[in-house]
């Protein structure tokens, strides 16, 4: 059992390490990953024709970590609250900065669509009504760090503030809520599996004003992914199941479900969970980031390779301890 301080740092450490480990493999097929890198078991430079992050050096984080840190900044500045208009402004500025640096690692499809509408003067109360991808879930860990799980209504309101502009759907909210609630429960001392189970129970009971979509339920898919993950004794068969049956796309009901299955299966070995995630293909960096945030919150940062964590912090210029402390003071 980790302390609250260790859990907060563990969540941010796991998020950033998973993100960086998945950076060179994101949006690639499993076959392409194997051809380019073999089995990824450490931080790697991205190949020159990486579709999202060509040539980035090993240890570089992507939009998952950078947007999570924007969320953290807004929470700290807002004394617990996120102002949706300011959030939209920060995301637009971040995208412009990434473009100016020549990066292809820009906004995901739901966030991009919503913010393009914001640029053209749309009401931010309406811009997120189609967002069902994992953009809200990948960046929400700071909300879980800053809020205790006992007051579920307050926690739900804070989660909603973080996803309204871009993912104002039932799927968008519930995907973010699953990650944030698991993180929050982990900081209270729950084990990985206890937190995953309790998060599924709490989120399924939370009310949301998000728009209905015909996509499969994120909690239902996550619960199913956990159950099925226990059926495989062989790791290759388990990974094949995630690729073929669960799915590893940016859709929240695939990627969040995959993260839950990985966190559950590797509850006692989070480092292996991240390495399994980054070899799956698809949205590898986000699946690994979400998995790392949830497991790290329950275990603290010591479960992750310290040399790799130091490399990520150095290459990507991260001060996660400062961010963790700022969020804990609001908890």
Folded structure, characterized:
This protein is mainly α. The chain has one domain (4-208, 216-328): ADP-ribosylglycohydrolase fold (Orthogonal Bundle). Helix content is 62%, strand content 0%. It is built from 17 helices and no strands. The chain has helices at 4-22, 30-37, 63-77, 84-100, 109-119, 135-138, 141-146, 152-163, 170-187, 192-205, 218-229, 235-246, 252-265, 270-278, 284-299, 306-315, 320-328. The model has no long low-confidence stretch (mean pLDDT 94).
Draw up the topology in text.
Elements: H1 4-22, H2 30-37, H3 63-77, H4 84-100, H5 109-119, H6 135-138, H7 141-146, H8 152-163, H9 170-187, H10 192-205, H11 218-229, H12 235-246, H13 252-265, H14 270-278, H15 284-299, H16 306-315, H17 320-328
Helix pairs in contact: 1-14, 1-15, 1-16, 1-17, 3-4, 8-9, 9-10, 9-15, 11-13, 13-14, 13-15, 14-15
Question: How can the largest sheet be summarized?
Answer: none
Query: Could you please say which CATH topology applies here?
Result: ADP-ribosylglycohydrolase fold
The CATH superfamily is ADP-ribosylation/Crystallin J1
Taking Cα atoms only, what radius of gyration do you get, to the nearest Å? 18 Å
Kindly state the number of beta strands.
0
Mean pLDDT: 94
Order of helices and strands: HHHHHHHHHHHHHHHHH
Low-confidence stretches: none
Helix content: 55-70%
Structural class, from secondary structure content?
Answer: mainly alpha
Report the CATH C-level class: Mainly Alpha
Q: Based on the structure given, which CATH architecture is correct?
A: Orthogonal Bundle
Query: Beta-strand level of the residues, as a percent range?
Result: under 5%
Overall 3D shape = globular
Report the end-to-end length measured between terminal Cα atoms: 18 Å
Protein name: ADP-ribosylglycohydrolase family protein
InterPro entries: ADP-ribosylglycohydrolase (IPR050792), Ribosyl_crysJ1 (IPR005502), Ribosyl_crysJ1_sf (IPR036705)
Pfam family, one: ADP_ribosyl_GH
